[in-house]
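hiii so um. not sure if this is the right channel but i have a protein structure encoded as tokens and i wanna go backwards to a sequence. like what aa goes where. can anyone help
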């Protein structure tokens, strides 16, 4: 047997979520009903008009052939139309838009395109794992920035730039943020663009949750800043907006040089999404948008039930202004455990699964993320379970939770 260590695989840490996922699987195999707030996997069906377009298109055998890696022209035009309507930004579908197999794939392939071994990338912490590990796989070193906003973020950005050797080549942004749910305004993007233009830093913005907001103020795009297209590219996704996570379709838009680099790498790796999926995605962007408001209201209702319910249990959780998550500090009596042990304890005693904050980076320690993917009835049941758990003084918080043993 060959005993060989693979360099890129060695650079990836153990997947923190795997331990909770394994416990969850064992519990379900034993017959336990686990209420799962762990993964941000939308549970509502894709709107009917989008599905109908897919079904109609797939009947044409010509659509079964290889597709276009950059995205079919109609889909790229549809994304450009969305940016014009939503953000007032005009994009050239030929040079400033490329379709990707979900924003996760797009970010990872752009990292391959623009990263050389030893490059320094500035990434938020805590953050969605691909924001860091896409570049780690590509050979970069990550310098973490606290996932903040406003003046404190700019101070940390300046400090990171001044103390980095070599100087950073790119900055990753994600607002509305996963997992912290934080939002920013256009003035924030203006400051970032001005700083990064001055210092020669590319900006990669992820706005996958730009349509899932609750305060009446639609989150902006960095591309609304006129100078942004000199240095920035932005990733969007249909997964959450149109409940299409399994369809794996998203976009990158913005700086022509970055888009060209991504398109060139993709041309070697894939032939694009299945054509009927792309046609249906164009129908989603061009068609009636009442389904987007319905999804937004669905998550708003679930958010209110979850947050108000947890607060009634004595667990104070901030109400998220956007995204499909709640970012919850550990209850005070369990803070010393850390997020992973608390998540395991909650799974064992309350039959509720959450994501430990440390899985999103070391600055996520002390928090758990709850995804709004269970209906209101199931959420209320979870709250009852959590209330009983928090009120159970017999639970030994000093004893690490190992294997999940179901009586």
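sure thing!! here u go:
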């Amino acid at each position: 047997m060959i005993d060989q260590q693979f360099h890129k695989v060695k650079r990836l840490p153990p997947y923190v979520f795997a331990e909770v996922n394994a416990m969850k699987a064992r519990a379900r195999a034993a017959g336990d009903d686990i209420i799962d707030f762990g993964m941000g996997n939308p549970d509502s069906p894709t709107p009917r008009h989008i599905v109908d377009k897919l079904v109609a298109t797939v009947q044409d055998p010509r659509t079964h052939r290889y597709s276009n890696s950059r995205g079919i022209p109609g889909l790229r035009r549809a994304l450009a139309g969305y940016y014009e309507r939503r953000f007032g930004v005009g994009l050239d579908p030929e040079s400033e838009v490329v379709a990707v197999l979900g924003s996760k794939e797009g970010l990872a392939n752009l990292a391959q395109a623009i990263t050389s071994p030893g490059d320094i990338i500035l990434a938020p912490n805590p953050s969605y794992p691909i924001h860091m590990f896409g570049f780690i796989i590509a050979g970069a070193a990550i310098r973490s920035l606290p996932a903040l906003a406003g003046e404190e973020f700019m101070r940390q950005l300046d400090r990171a730039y001044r103390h980095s050797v070599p100087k950073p080549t790119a900055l990753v942004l994600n607002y509305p943020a996963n997992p912290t749910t934080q939002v920013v305004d256009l003035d924030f993007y203006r400051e970032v663009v001005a700083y990064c233009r001055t210092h020669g830093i590319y900006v990669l913005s992820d706005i996958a949750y730009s349509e899932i907001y609750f305060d009446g103020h639609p989150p902006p795009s960095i591309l609304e800043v006129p100078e942004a297209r000199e240095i920035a590219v932005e990733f969007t996704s249909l997964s959450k907006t149109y409940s299409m996570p399994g369809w794996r379709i998203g976009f990158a838009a913005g700086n022509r040089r970055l888009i060209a680099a991504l398109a060139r790498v993709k041309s070697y790796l894939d032939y694009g999404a299945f054509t009927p999926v792309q046609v249906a995605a164009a129908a989603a962007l061009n068609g009636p948008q009442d389904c987007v408001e319905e999804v937004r209201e669905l998550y708003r209702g679930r958010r209110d039930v979850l947050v108000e319910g947890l607060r009634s249990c004595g667990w104070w959780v901030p109400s998220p202004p956007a995204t499909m998550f709640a970012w919850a500090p550990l209850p005070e009596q369990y803070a010393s455990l850390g997020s992973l042990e608390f998540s395991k304890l909650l799974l064992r005693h309350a039959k509720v699964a959450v994501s430990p904050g440390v899985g999103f980076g070391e600055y996520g320690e002390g928090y758990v993320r709850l995804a709004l993917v269970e209906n209101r009835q199931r959420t209320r049941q979870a709250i009852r379970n959590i209330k009983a758990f928090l009120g159970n003084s017999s639970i030994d918080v000093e004893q690490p939770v190992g294997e999940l043993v179901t009586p």
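oh and Residues 7-45+291-390 form a domain with the Aspartate Aminotransferase, domain 1 fold (CATH 3.90.1150.10).
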